[in-house]
Design goal:
The structure is a homotetramer. With about 400 residues, chain A is an alpha/beta fold. The first copy, chain A, contains 17 helices and 12 strands. Helix content of chain A is about 45%, strand content about 10%. In chain A, the strands form 3 sheets. In chain A, strands 4-11-10-9-8-7-6-5 form an 8-stranded parallel sheet. A two-stranded antiparallel sheet of chain A has the order 1-12. The interface between A and B is medium-sized, with 30 and 37 residues.
Chain lengths: ~400, ~400, ~400, ~400
Amino acid sequence: MSGSAPEWHRKAYSVAAMRAMARRALPRPIFDFTDGGAENEYTLRRNEAAHAQYELVPRSLRGSPARDLSVELFGKRLALPIMIGPTGLSGLMWPQGEIAAARAAAAAGTAFCLSHASTCTIEDLAATGIAPRWMQVFIYRDRGFTKEFVERTAASQYDALVLTIDNQMTGNRERDIRNGFTIPPSFSPLDKAMMATKIGWLMRMGPALPKLTFGNYVRAGQPMDMKTLAAKMSEMLDPSLSWADVDWLRTLWKGPLILKGVLHPEEAAEAAKRGIDAVIVSNHGGRQLDGAPATVDMLPRVVEAIGGRIPVLLDGGIRRGADVLKARALGAALCLVARPQLWGLAVAGEAGVARMFDIFRREIDRAMALMGITRLDQLGPDDLRKAG
Amino acid sequence: MSGSAPEWHRKAYSVAAMRAMARRALPRPIFDFTDGGAENEYTLRRNEAAHAQYELVPRSLRGSPARDLSVELFGKRLALPIMIGPTGLSGLMWPQGEIAAARAAAAAGTAFCLSHASTCTIEDLAATGIAPRWMQVFIYRDRGFTKEFVERTAASQYDALVLTIDNQMTGNRERDIRNGFTIPPSFSPLDKAMMATKIGWLMRMGPALPKLTFGNYVRAGQPMDMKTLAAKMSEMLDPSLSWADVDWLRTLWKGPLILKGVLHPEEAAEAAKRGIDAVIVSNHGGRQLDGAPATVDMLPRVVEAIGGRIPVLLDGGIRRGADVLKARALGAALCLVARPQLWGLAVAGEAGVARMFDIFRREIDRAMALMGITRLDQLGPDDLRKAG
Amino acid sequence: MSGSAPEWHRKAYSVAAMRAMARRALPRPIFDFTDGGAENEYTLRRNEAAHAQYELVPRSLRGSPARDLSVELFGKRLALPIMIGPTGLSGLMWPQGEIAAARAAAAAGTAFCLSHASTCTIEDLAATGIAPRWMQVFIYRDRGFTKEFVERTAASQYDALVLTIDNQMTGNRERDIRNGFTIPPSFSPLDKAMMATKIGWLMRMGPALPKLTFGNYVRAGQPMDMKTLAAKMSEMLDPSLSWADVDWLRTLWKGPLILKGVLHPEEAAEAAKRGIDAVIVSNHGGRQLDGAPATVDMLPRVVEAIGGRIPVLLDGGIRRGADVLKARALGAALCLVARPQLWGLAVAGEAGVARMFDIFRREIDRAMALMGITRLDQLGPDDLRKAG
Amino acid sequence: MSGSAPEWHRKAYSVAAMRAMARRALPRPIFDFTDGGAENEYTLRRNEAAHAQYELVPRSLRGSPARDLSVELFGKRLALPIMIGPTGLSGLMWPQGEIAAARAAAAAGTAFCLSHASTCTIEDLAATGIAPRWMQVFIYRDRGFTKEFVERTAASQYDALVLTIDNQMTGNRERDIRNGFTIPPSFSPLDKAMMATKIGWLMRMGPALPKLTFGNYVRAGQPMDMKTLAAKMSEMLDPSLSWADVDWLRTLWKGPLILKGVLHPEEAAEAAKRGIDAVIVSNHGGRQLDGAPATVDMLPRVVEAIGGRIPVLLDGGIRRGADVLKARALGAALCLVARPQLWGLAVAGEAGVARMFDIFRREIDRAMALMGITRLDQLGPDDLRKAG
């Protein structure tokens, strides 16, 4: 696969097809890490299933000679209504995975958000000049450590800061436990044998694996490898995270500040009140609290609670262009895609992520044409119907 | 199968059984072309499943000594409440497929609608004298090309003109992509080997395949074969289609003008207001916008929006006589069947389509008898119940 | 199986287990005849599934020292709230099947209804002295033939007359078509070979098969065998059946007259108005109009429409004692069981039907005890809950 | 397994995983006894499925530095919001099963309820000093026998008395019938051969099996073994159980008196009115009346009917920490777990039950952290959402 991958990915005609290719390309513990969720994976499944509960009712005769897929956010235009959300360990999918994905996003005219658990550093990405670039931060027990992250992000001129609020204690991801994809890893001999069958991945990643590390943490003066640091990272997070921390962060960071992991309408309303610039309706892709609602099920109530004061973004189960249209019709400004981008990376690096954007672009464009619209802001509740 | 087919089809006791026979008779890429839908095939499945959401509540003691299955449309009687809707490439199922199907429809006392993408021409069908005959048209970027189609249709004395509005950009039909049933085709060696096992189909169609073409387009001065024209056909369609085009078409065509592909009640109301003669509630058999609602789910709202001004027709998932009764009870004047007719053709040509009409006629007649009615206009909302 | 059958049936701990035994004992075309329904078998499945939509909410502390399972109907007590409904061809399950089943019903203290299509005659059953005995009749094109049935029923002192109204045209039972269980039969060599593996059934039924006939029709001066008569029987039924016929029958028969096959509340109300003594809410076990609602889904509306003027009985999908309690709580006076009795017959003749009654008696008694009631008339809407 | 069991159980990362281990460890008739329910197992399945109908909506920014998992009941603190409910025959899972489970409960800081059908006696458990300890009693035909149980319970200084009201007639557990797990047992040779493959269980339990007995009954002057006593036990229970018996029991027992098996809101209200100290919303784990609602479906109505006068407890389908949070949000003070504790016993005795408590503790703690709460009484209806 290694050699032919750049061609192979062109056969991916959908995100589902790209996922199937990634499943073949990746060692199973790594694929499961990209694919799985917490406990019974109820929330994981609901995220996707909930999109199907909404139906799009076209009005073909409105005329859509050419579609404009762009959206405005924080006064700037993105060429697409999707961007890449933060995912840890992208560098396990493809060498320099984060930068590969960011390049593809920039080429597609949209934004990329770097994960705190990236294998490159805040500065590495900035050095490429790729933009718009967003950075994810957490609140640590040691607030100074958070402050350092924010200052580095500011120094590297990122466009937005994303505070993830739903991961202060790591979710109970049982596929990872079963696969030994834990900290430290405990792969069985069988797993290791299976890994050896993924030749393409091994050839690409083999040399890099021993040196792989959490770049941002190393840079931050924590010279640790993936085994020890990941465990520590978890301990470093502070479950006492509260609105006071958000207010404090607001004083540290002058640019757009975004809360990621909002589901409750009250929490959304509070965010708008406290000067946050946007919220991302998210349940961490079903990887944290299993039993939490699908994001699209909460979206209308969050949109109502915010009442237009700030933009509402959404992630979770976005697999088709039509999903993006539904989210827009329900009031989302923009959707974040995470797993599809990992699968794209796993299949063909930057070219695979570019392919993912191609797929979404064509699906969004076609769905707009078939809905009879030319701009995304034409979508509203009247274009949707609850199924059944 | 070739020799015994004319007998074989008599064993088809239901549309589902006929579909199973067609699956055995046709090369897989061709069967999938008749059977598949867009993307996740959500809308395809919903079309069929939504009929099951309505239940028929019989009143046996109303007396139904003999049932009259006829319906009136545009001042004329059709012997059945179903007719054949337009399907491209019927000529791939059986030599001269469109004319075979039209003969069976005429023999059954009902109408046939020719597809723009037929293998015979507008004039070929007219020359047979088969009636009633309807013609499907599209709005092309080159409006003169549309005008030519309309003029040919008028010159050939067709009974109605059907403007399809939901196909200005072709749907994302992934079974066709997987099967290489694309323009141009890219069948794998395995596919080709599989095709060779469909002896009956090969013997019938083999000689005709190289000469097969889109008749109407050739006639219209576009001497192209199936490979190149289909791609071009798609480019020719104009996504800027709007009400202005409908008004223009209304001035060109004096007979019954029908909009096919209406789902939104507002669009239906607008059609009635603009002098259209009928609408067909359709989602293109789930082949266009995946995520669109089932047609029968939109039917009551469309009927309400139109308020009796013009007839409402419906296609999508009609597989049983009872489905037709349900649609009638919800306000549809007539149903169009498309896939069942292709399967009939694939199994035994004209005799197969005749068999399909037999199956529907017997199922509709029996369902009417069991409902205790003698005429279809006795059906109303009081005969239905939402399931569950 | 033939020898051990009388013991074997004691292992049937539920109706479902008895059905599994019958499936093993009977040739497949015959089992499918007992088990199948019309077309997609939607109504067949709904009958059973709809019972599960209601939940029983116990109040254990009401005290139920001993349960009285009896019900009153037409001024008499039946020991159980179930009786045997009319089923054709019971004689194919076991020699003299109808009389065997009737004996078991009488032994259980409840009623038996003879089918018009029984293999014994009206007089044969009467000669056994088994009571209460009910007789099913139809309205034939030749009303004199119906009159003759009614007079024979009166002469043989039956306790009630049941007019079946939902079978004037035979349902579209596709399992029977597939199996060749049609009139005339067309079993394939494979079917015949399979039949030969059902040794017990062949030994019991083999000698009787050539002589098997529809007793009532022979007696009525129609000396025909099963092949020719069944086809004729279907032709004899008059689809113009209406309320006028019901009124006429009311003048012919002085005893309790019952309409079987009522689903629509309006039809039920009309029956009460016209002096009918009871209605049976039935969809013919899902064997007639596929797409008709489950009987228990219509029960509350029928009960409401009748408003206590006459008793409401129910059949369809009764497989557990709890189903009977639910029907009682929704207003049914009594339930008819049909398929379970055929399965009992197939497994062990009279002993099998007795076993079926044992199973129901124990399940009803236990369910009453667990509900905390001593009499069935304690049940009401407050004991039920809609699931989900 | 026998030797390695104490290590093996540490691999159980969830209750479901522990169940899978128990399935491997136990002879099938015994596993099915722990796993099965009555008749169609509708209620069994609903118990688990109903929890999934509720979704938890987190508000991460409320700050949850450390979670307090304790709850107050009858003026005392339990360290966890779960306790062990009464289960018969725990001694079949592990030698001295009841005492092993009780030790694990006490170590976890919570209560244990002894079953009347335990293999140890009321006095045996008391002698260990384990507390809090509760005792389950029944109303027997011989009220003196009940009185003796109560007096022994008082003499042994139990903390609460639990009257089970939904088991006066034993449920129809068909897995046990199929497996021959009846009184007396009738295991097939195949079953016995299968049992022999469960080496660990056989080595542990083999020597004890012949001496195994229902301890409380023996002590109560009924020197019978498991075969004969179980049948008798069933006969001894009085289905005429009523509120008068509850009043009588109230006079006998001065401590906390709890009714277990309440589902109907009226019955719950009556309990509060008559001076009962708590009710347990329970359907006996789906082992009694099949068709009864899921406990969590009745919980809100019971809570409303009781109106805060006394605590409401719940059992049924609690398999995840999130299930406990949902029950708390709907008004339950505490949940009882029964099957999970049997599976824990089967896998590793006391260590297995301790592991079960570990799993729940971690899941509850994590779910609280992710919900953003520090105490369970922060949960309310606003934290829940009905799914779909």
